[in-house]
Amino acid sequence: MKVLMFGWEFPPHITGGLGTACFGLTKGLAKHGLNIIFVVPKAYGDESEEAVRLVNASQVTIDIDKEAERSYWDRVQYMEVGSNIIPYVGPEAFEELTEESIRATETFKSRVFSQKFEFSGKYGINLMEEVARYALIGSSIATKTDFDVIHAHDWLTYPAGVAAKETTGKPLVVHMHATEFDRSGENINTDVYAIEKRGMEMADRVITVSNLTRRIVIDRYGIDPDKVITVHNAVEPSDKPDLQGFDKAVKEKVVTFLGRITFQKGPEYFVEAAAKILKRDSNVRFVMAGTGDLMNKMVARVAKLRMGDKFHFTGFLKGDDVDKMFAMSDVFVMPSISEPFGIVPLEAMRSNVPVVISKQSGVAEVLKHAIKVDFWDIDAMADAIYALCHYDALSNTFIKYGKDEVDSLKWEHAALQVKQVYDSVFN
């Protein structure tokens, strides 16, 4: 079976869990004999193609003089052309970008129709412009590629998936890694919601990364439950040397938050829990690794609580720096308000770090050897962190059995379930 897959990022160029999940899933599917053509807005040349054939949308041209290619626009016209959506940028970039004026409709259309379009592959002020052009490219690629099924990851690629389906009539599977309600709470961007809803309505099957997300898709988007299937994420086995015993250069216990510093991830609850712990024991350091629109607010709160000497902000980490951060950590905390899944706790457990996660996360559905608390219960969170820092028997138990548990969560198992979803659209 050949799969035409649309994604927005691919390792090593990632901003979060989406690219990591796509990489793991494609490797798993390859083990089951599937051929994957993976389209990204921008390829840099250093991506791993061991399990996919990567297509760089920035290298695909559209002949605007051909009526057939120009008509692709009809398939993406429902999108709001002036939207200003900036979901995954740091605070400095966010402030700078929001000062820019929204693009005029005609400028937008002329850029999208240009024969050559260089995607940034990022999440900037012209994100909707890139999503529209990507859909245009997706429709064009679909007419020139041999494949059996279309698979689109998250809302950014849903229009491309829908356009490819309407062009070829091939079945469409969309993968919901995070809903707009996860990212924004009740203050949703209606344009993104509309794209998500239409993508799922047009799809033959919808894959959700947890039962938590499945309920949101059914209840908040009105999608037919019969076509919504949960396939939990997994984690790549580590191919890197064990950094256990890595010199962390500080004598205190280290407690780490690693993720986007945004509403969804609940960073403020981590800060408040840290303050409670430091009142009981000053021999603990806290690290917040990541960037996001709440970062400045978190820095100000840490300063107001007078714990700046025990609280560190690293900025965005990737690759070896993530591994080193885990090697320095005694506890990992994910206090997400709404987490569709959450791969980072699995990566922490794989690195022999015990974890505290919110009950409001999809990964809580599959993990037994993690301490689970309500994101808003700062006292329970502080107690859990304190216990893992101070009681070696407890910590060692979670490390030992947590590592065994995570090692059994393989992408090839998740990929087999996805293959079964593909098979179902032909029955």
Defining traits:
427 residues, alpha/beta, Rossmann fold, 2 domains, 7-stranded parallel sheet, 6-stranded parallel sheet, 14% strand
Question: What do you see in this structure?
Answer:
By secondary structure, the protein is of the alpha/beta class. It has 2 domains: 2-234 and 411-424, 3-Layer(aba) Sandwich (Rossmann fold); 253-407, Glycogen Phosphorylase B (Rossmann fold, 3-Layer(aba) Sandwich), CATH 3.40.50.2000. It is 42% helix and 14% strand. The chain has 16 helices and 13 strands. Strands 3-2-1-4-5-6-7 form a 7-stranded parallel beta sheet, with helices on both faces. Strands 10-9-8-11-12-13 form a 6-stranded parallel beta sheet, with helices on both faces. Helix 1 links the parallel strand 1 and strand 2. Helix 5 packs parallel to helix 6 (154-168). It is globular and about 65 Å long.
Write the layout of secondary structure elements.
Layout: E1 2-6, H1 17-31, E2 35-40, E3 53-56, H2 67-70, H3 91-98, H4 105-113, H5 127-143, E4 149-153, H6 154-168, E5 172-176, H7 180-184, H8 190-202, E6 205-208, H9 211-221, E7 228-230, E8 253-258, H10 267-280, E9 284-289, H11 295-304, E10 311-315, H12 320-328, E11 331-334, H13 344-350, E12 355-358, E13 371-373, H14 378-390, H15 392-407, H16 411-424
Parallel strand pairs: 1-2, 1-4, 2-3, 4-5, 5-6, 6-7, 8-9, 8-11, 9-10, 11-12, 12-13
